[in-house]
Amino acid sequence: MTGAARAAAEGAAQAAWPAAGAATDDELVGAVAGGDRAALELPYRRHAPWLAGRLAARTSSVELAEEALQDTFLAAWRSARGYHGGGEVTAWLWGIARRRLSSLARRQRPGGLSLDAAAEPRDPGATPEEAALGQDASARVRRAVAHLPPEQGAAITAVVYEGQSIEAAARAAAVPEGTIKSRLHRARLHIRKELGS
Amino acid sequence: MTEHPNELLLEIADGAVPPVEARAHLGSCRRCQQTLAALAPLDLGYAWQGVAADLDAPRPGLLERFLVAFGVRPGLARFTATAPSLRLGWLLANLLVLGLVALPMALRPVASAPSAALLAAPLVAAAAVAFAYGPAVDPAYEAVAATPLSPLQALLVRLTAVLVANTALAGVVDLVLGHGPRAGWLLPMTAASLLAALVASCWTPMAGSAAGMGAWLLVLVAWKASHQPVGWLTGPGAQAAYAVVAAALLVLLIRRMVGEGWALGASGT
What we know:
The structure holds two protein chains of two kinds.
Chain A: H1 3-16, H2 25-33, H3 41-58, H4 62-79, H5 89-108, H6 128-146, H7 150-161, H8 166-173, H9 177-196
Chain B: H1 6-13, H2 20-28, H3 30-39, H4 44-56, H5 62-69, H6 74-81, H7 84-107, H8 116-131, H9 141-145, H10 151-177, H11 186-202, H12 205-226, H13 231-234, H14 236-260, H15 263-267
Helix pairs in contact in B: 1-3, 5-6, 7-8, 7-10, 8-11, 8-12, 10-11, 11-12, 11-14
């Protein structure tokens, strides 16, 4: 798929996402279990970003992570009836995602595993103490952003702090969109490294 | 939450689970979603398209999965299973034919002479097969025209499906009535149907129907003229002859189809 086609598909997907309600995760899973086709879009919007971050951190293959992400939501759609609440939906989703990624990686490369056995990423704000830690984490992220090389820092400022689209950030910096994307990618790796140290 | 949780967005893009109190904002704020999509190491919109396409794809029905499990190519299985407009007709025709056969057998356990209904069964089959071939009578004709199958191939696929199902049903009827295998009429019916299909594909449905029915009527006239017992018509010798004729007609039909190109086999989907 060409970059333009992917962008168009992404635009269509954004447009197809309905306005989110304040439904809890359990309510959403209930709606999914009831076969509500539209009810899967909201959990995707809510949980795909962090799942994508975790999956991508565990494999060097973008395609593999993308496939695992898709499989996770398809499996969630089909097995939502078996989910009886009582636990965090996020833990349930991540359990599915991790298994899907392992089995996809095994199928792709029997024997050798391309998975990174990295520690679980942080989970801010699950308890009051962790919420306090989460505020601390925000300050640490801000410090990490301040330490970025100028071009990467500018990309993060434009996209994250000013809310610009990649297209607008690229136009403002007079560089191709791909350059902004790769600067964002390298900035994320920088920040992860600094937070991990 | 009125302000955008910018640092949290960076953490989420790195795999951190968003705290519960931030989820409502993240789910409804387009700016934050745009930022998350920009930061994501994967193309989230593209991945969603894949999920949506899979959700919207039709699930294979029970019959289709059954056929595939028995080694039928997936394309043929779908073609055979997904013709809802034909199902009512198929069901009615089967009930009619099986009823015509089962009723006399139930009433007269010892078949001293074949009933009129039994003798007529191949005629009905030949007429039905010939007239199922063509835009005027086939409710699924437009759908067939849009498949990689030629109408002739489609007809043979349907014929096979119907005769296989009929044989199984007739076997059940025989077992229920407890007469042992008496479905001797199926072979002449198959031969008459194949002849009708072959001629209909070469000329017109009317010609096909006439050929199938005419051939069976000739057999009946010959039997009457010979003053032979019923065995002459339904015994093992006759069954073998029907089988040979049916096989020859099948070979001719397949040769004709190969001439047209067996498209579905090539595409294989």
